[in-house]
Amino acid sequence: MKMNPLGRTGIQVSELCLGTMTFGTQTEETEAHAQIDMALAGGINFVDAAEMYPVNPISAETVGLTETIIGNWFAKTGRRSEVVLATKHSGSGFKHARDGAPISSQTIPEAVEGSLRRLQTDHIDLYQFHWPNRGSYMFRQNWRYDPSKQSHAETMAHMEDALEALQRQVDKGNIRAFGLSNESAWGTSQWLRIAEERGWPRVASVQNEYSMLCRLYDTDMAEMSVNEDVGLLAFSPLGAGFLTGKYQHGSVPQGSRMDLVPEMGGRKSARVFDAVDAYLAIAQRHGVDPVHMALAFTLQRPFMCSSIFGATRLDQLEHILKTPEVTLSEEILAEIDDAHRAHPMPY
Asked: What's the pTM value of the predicted model, to 2 decimals?
């Protein structure tokens, strides 16, 4: 398993990261603990969570359960030191945490302490803001994105306030590094600028959606990443499961995400199935497993830090762990680009 630098922090993370957003809903605790065991045995040292997890569905009753399950694994095994642990502070409007309050110096201490308690640890390696207070074009909001209502002064004041609060958490030893999620190139650049001017925590990574079906990161964000040493933590590299092919031709496996969330968070459309057919045809022509092709594609991008996948079953995880053995040829990459031009942004 290849290790990559987490920004300029000096922390090394595996190129594949175990996503945990189903721990507590689709994935029961015993299975979740077995997944962590298998992931570590397979060379993964990076685990990503969030205070709002699990999802599929999100409910007030389950908020924080994913972190609790991971914390129980730490307590049971004593293997906390083997894991680079990432989690997230929920953003503005999430009613199940702090009544939807925006991220601020008032919410950060409470959120950090809550995660530390549930995770049964004394520190978080990467602490991320789940989405920006000012809003985001992620999650299919790019089609009608309008930043004209933003207040520049409020955004700058918020960033200074939050970074100073994060510095206090670093000083306490509660967090080691800071990351963003669902952010833009402009937003990331402002966080970087303020942090460097004031000597506060520097952005180490950005966790945004990225896959062959969702390539918003390929332009301005890519340029920011390579110039600023802020790598992408790609979520949904399998296109929320579409790229496995399991949803083609009307198939909806029992217990799958589509079974629980039929519209797939706005991803389901006629165009997505046509796009998936094009990618599956490439995999078939070249004798490559479609799961391995989808993940390997993300790993070979020049701005990638780690690709975050989820598995609801151990056999899926076992299959995914073979991905580092696969390197996509220039011919395959060219065909993927051709398919992307023919089927751009299908959701």
From this structure: 0.97
Residue 301 β-bridge partners: none
pLDDT in tens, 163-193: 999 999 999 999 999 999 999 999 999 999 9
**CB of 108 within 8 A of CB of 165?**
yes
C-alpha span between 321 and 307 (Å, rounded): 12
Q: How far is the C-alpha of 80 from the C-alpha of 213, rounded, in Å? A: 35
Residues catalogued as catalytic: 53
The three state secondary structure string of the chain is CCEEECCCCCCEEECEEEECCCECCCECHHHHHHHHHHHHHCCCCEEECCCCCCCCCCCCCCCCHHHHHHHHHHHHHCCHHHCEEEEEECCCCCCCCHHHCCCCCCHHHHHHHHHHHHHCCCCEEEEEECCCCCCCCCCCHHHHCCHHHCCHHHHHHHHHHHHHHHHHHHHHCCEEEEEEECCCHHHHHHHHHHHHHHCCCCEEEEEEECECCECHHHCHHHHHHHHHCCEEEEECCCHHHHHHCCCHHHCCCCCCHHHHCCCHHHCCCHHHHHHHHHHHHHHHHHCCCHHHHHHHHHHCCCCEEEEEECCCCHHHHHHHCCHHHCCCCHHHHHHHHHHHHHCCCCC
The predicted-structure confidence for 4-32, as pLDDT tens digits, reads as follows: 999 999 999 999 999 999 999 999 999 99
